[in-house]
Amino acid sequence: MEELTAIGIDAATNPESTTELGVSKAVHGDIALNFLETSPEDFVVEKEVAKRVLRKIDLRILPLLCVTLFLQFLDKSTLSYASIFGIIEDAHLVGTDYSWLSSIFYFGYMISQPISAYTMQHFSPAKCLSFSVFWWGVILFMHVVCDSFAKLMAVRFFLGMAEAIVTPAFLLITSGWYPRSMQPLRMGAWYAFNGVAIMFGGLIAYGLGHIHVDNISPWKWMFIVPAGMSILWSIVLFFCLPTSQLTASFFNDHERRTAIELIRSNNTGIHGKTFKKEQAKEALLDPITWFLFFLNLLINVPNSISSFGSLIISNFGFGSLETTLLSMPGGAVEILTMTLIPLLSMKVHNSRLWCTFGVVLVALLGTALIFALPYGDKGGLLAGYWLIFIFPTAGILLYSMLGANVAGHTKKVTTNAVVLIGYCVGNIIGPQFFKSEQKPRYRLAIGSFLVCWCLMLVLCLLFRFYLRRQNKRREAHQEATTEIEYESNIEFHDLTDRQNPKFVYIL
Question: Which GO terms describe its cellular component (predicted)?
């Protein structure tokens, strides 16, 4: 199995036994540390058992994440679908009202990031996720009773707060269950369900748009059905998503130890419950945090296409139901690229930022087509629109960089919060470039996409140069100190990437 070979498991391995280095012990370390220190030191990871463990994780953990992402993106897209089925008229939205309904969601999302970071430092990300899904389902249902701009602004703000924990929880869960080399493909798998939501969301919206019940406008069904699905799913998550390898009922003791050993080489552990001020400070001063912040900000300005996609397609000259169906190929592009490009980044060592660079180039091409082609060229405009939907793959590659290159639980949740604030800022700014008076071309908005893609290309190159230089410095330091022996289980001592001399950055 190539994935196992990539993390150094050929037939059997065992954790190294080493001497003291003077770092913190189990009381301030990872939750796995006590388990490891009471387990046999001569444990051997068997390749067949490792395959079985990974298969169980893929079958028991990954599907739960995929469905949750499907529901989250479906819920976020309900406003876009509702926009062509009457919510604008029923809620008396004018001017930039609709743009603000898209932006206010991310104000709530942004304000909740420090709260999410604190919560997931002290509680299991899995349980936090299940409560988040429940509350966003309840809040989504409340959209049905909104008949004004003010009421919709309120529920959109609280919906953003409820969903704020999802992405950081997913990053922590994925990096806590999978080796670094396997994370892009798994992240691509669950993030691809955004594309599934685009495809099936279009079908669902098409069907719901045909429901005609007295006193219930068609747009309200766009919220009622996804809200019910989310509330029911939160119950499934609460009981079926384990908090860690230590509590997974589908492992026996030997498999449990194997699952922990598989992520040893990550040097990031599973979960640490002690808040460490020095790690939070390190996160805020680390250039990696700010590279990821600005890249995430720039990639999410064009993410406003998720809210305005239906309006863009309809302005090409298509009707409401045609527009809903024509949004589906964009989802297919996302699913395809979410599968193939992370797989490529896994096969080709240290290629994640090169893959990100290539994805952004394709998105730049699609945006240029929409900006430059005449509006009579419907085929070319649609092709450009669908090409843009490759860009979420760059987002997942950047998230995998965060999961792989930031160690120390407090540092990780702090970096997550900062990076997702960038995500929010981009999503707040993006809709404001869509001016109703600029229909149908939205020159300012499409032009802002072009600028963001170009800036991202430059930042990708600078980020790769920085990480490569850091690795060379670490390599030179290790060559100069070859006689140093490291403490046993140092990988689970909740050290940051800077504190751990064995840490190597993924490019």
Answer: membrane
Q: Specify the pLDDT at position 16.
A: 44
Question: What would the pLDDT profile of 89-124 be if each residue is shown by its tens digit?
Answer: 888 888 888 878 888 988 999 999 999 888 888 889
Q: Which candidate, 264, 265, 274, 270, places its Cα nearest to that of 24?
A: 274
- Looking at per-residue pLDDT, the higher value among 62 and 98 belongs to 62
Helix (H) or strand (E) holding 13: strand 12-13
Give the H or E element holding residue 12: strand 12-13
Q: Amino acid letter at 169? A: A
Nearest to 334 by CA among 400, 395, 392: 392
Mapped onto helix, strand or coil, the DSSP state of residue 8 is coil
The answer on pLDDT for 440 being more than 80 is: no
**Residue-wise pLDDT tens digits, 344-383:** 998 898 999 999 999 999 999 999 999 999 888 888 889 9
Distance between CA atoms of 181 and 131, rounded to whole angstroms?
30
Q: Give the DSSP H/E element, type plus range, for residue 46.
A: strand 45-46
CB atoms within 10 A of CB 343: 13
Q: Are 53 and 46 in contact (CB under 8 A)?
A: no
Q: Whole-angstrom Cα distance, residue 436 to residue 118?
A: 40
Decide: 290 and 422 in contact? Cβ < 8 Å: no
Write down the pLDDT at residue 26.
41
The two tokens of residue 57 are: 């994780």
Cis, peptide link before residue 40, omega less than 30° from 0: no
What's CA 416's distance to the chain center, in Å? 10
User: Quick check: helix, strand or coil at residue 263?
Assistant: coil
Three-class SS of residue 45?
strand
**267/280 Cα distance (integer angstroms):** 18
- Predicted TM-score (pTM) of this structure: 0.82
168: left (phi over 0), alpha (psi -120 to 50) or beta: alpha
332 — pLDDT class (breaks 50, 70, 90):
confident
DSSP-based helix, strand, coil % in the chain, nearest 5: 75, 0, 25
Residue type, 74: L
Sign of CA dihedral 257, 263, 269, 271: negative
Specify burial of residue 108 (Cβ count, 10 A radius: 0-12, 13-18, 19+): buried
Q: Which domains does the chain have, with CATH numbers?
A: 30-492 (1.20.1250.20)
The one-letter code for the residue type at 273 is K
**DSSP H helix total and E strand total for the chain:** 24, 2
Q: Quote the CA–CA distance of 275 and 181 in Å, as a whole number.
A: 28
Q: Is 216 helix (H, G, I), strand (E, B) or coil?
A: strand
Q: So what's the pLDDT on residue 472?
A: 92
